Amino acid sequence: MEVKQQEASVGRFSADILCRNVADxxxxxxxxxxxxxDHSHLGQLITYAAGLDAKTLVWVVKQFTEEHRAAIDWLxxxxxxxxxxxxxxxxxxxxxxxxxxxxxxxxxxxxxxxKVTRQAQRSSTGHSDLQKLYLEFWDIFGDHSEEDGxxxxxxxxxxxxxxxxxxGKETSLCTQxxxxxxxxxxxxxxxxxxxxxxxxxxxxxxxxxEAELGYPLxxxxxxxxxxxxxxxxxxxxxxxxxxxxxxxxxxxxxxAEFGDVFRPRIKQLEASEWVPATDSREAAVELx
Length: 288
Description:
Helices cover 38% and strands 30% of the residues. It has eight helices and eleven strands. The longest helix is centred in the last third of the chain and has 24 residues, at 244-267.
């Protein structure tokens, strides 16, 4: 996580710490209460979630009452997997003459597996056989994502792609699997009105980017469309379920590599810095 702001204003209240989850670009609110939990702070936490569009809320206190711990458990149980609520107790220890040191104890946290499974079961109703196949693959992918530890478990989708944060600028990293054409793919999707500028600014760094990744990429400016893509693709046997674990790890590794290489560059993109190359045919007409 990276800290974005302390005392982030939400109406007449202020959230203690606002952070960004670098894995998916979602907001994280941390509320500190150096006393026993109370209803007022629980209400403020919900207010901060709404006002700051936070997906993860962390309530750090001296002591949780059983009622408020149960409230955090209830929120985790009855909200979908996009939201996470944590209850944390803090104690301060000192050994001899050493400086005081805090110890954090998580007393309430989400059960992601239960939430994702429940949501997937609800979502599967009414889906086609192909959509159910996507749900099944992404659920298994989620298992390996959780074991991997580098990414939050994603919500299974009845589609061939899952989107991940990439640093803004109307871009996203996408993990994809296509059962009809038998391939898996990881791409940087670039959308918005500045997609062409952002694409070419990144392409200007093509040699360095591919050297850092250690493999070549496909750079697709999608002429006539309102988006561009930079991707790596692998032909696979998508219907061989025994290899889904292998495909999941391939996608997760590429996702981590793309994140390391592209996210810092995407954050620095400024569309105004791109100067389109002059079309030689137009230049010839002007000279005539």
